[in-house]
Design a protein that fits this description.
The chain is about 20% helix and about 25% strand. By secondary structure, the chain is an alpha/beta fold.
Length: about 150
């Protein structure tokens, strides 16, 4: 396996987070503009930074440590964010790290994109296969919440 790129502080190069920044729950919107909207629900929000399309804010919900981390557009950008987050917190270790991921995005109809009123956010749950680009061990270890 190739060596994982790190920044000057030893954090994963793209997401620039440390293990102390994240808890068991991660909200993963594609759009960096949604991160502050999600963080409005956090108590004690802390802006962790913005590098490329990866914006992160940590906080707490009901005493639980959470992080909102944008994944950018498309499967490759999401794969980078989730791979780095998974390596950081050890998702394959079922006793620790962030194991719950919630993709907070939308798939709007053309009418909404053309300026019509956007539909309300409707949380759903389900399971989907991780996109191409994930390493094989991570593909087996990752369950997606859609």
């Amino acid at each position: 396996m190739a060596e994982e790129p790190r920044d000057d502080d030893g954090r994963p190069y793209h997401i620039r987070l440390s293990k102390e920044d994240v808890g068991r729950i991660a909200f993963l919107p594609g759009d960096p503009g949604r991160v502050p909207k999600i963080a409005e629900r956090f108590s004690n929000p802390k802006d962790l930074g913005f590098h490329r399309e990866y914006r992160a804010i940590a906080g707490r919900i009901g005493g639980e440590k959470v992080v909102a981390l944008s994944t950018g557009i498309g499967g490759p950008a999401a794969a980078i964010a989730i791979e780095e987050l998974a390596r950081l917190v050890g998702w394959e270790d079922l006793e620790g790290g962030s194991r719950t991921r919630d993709s907070a995005g939308q798939c709007a109809p053309r009418s909404a994109q053309a300026g019509a009123r956007r539909p309300a956010l409707s949380p759903t749950s389900g399971t989907a296969r991780p996109p191409e680009g994930f390493s094989e061990p991570r593909r087996r270890a990752t369950t997606w919440s859609a």
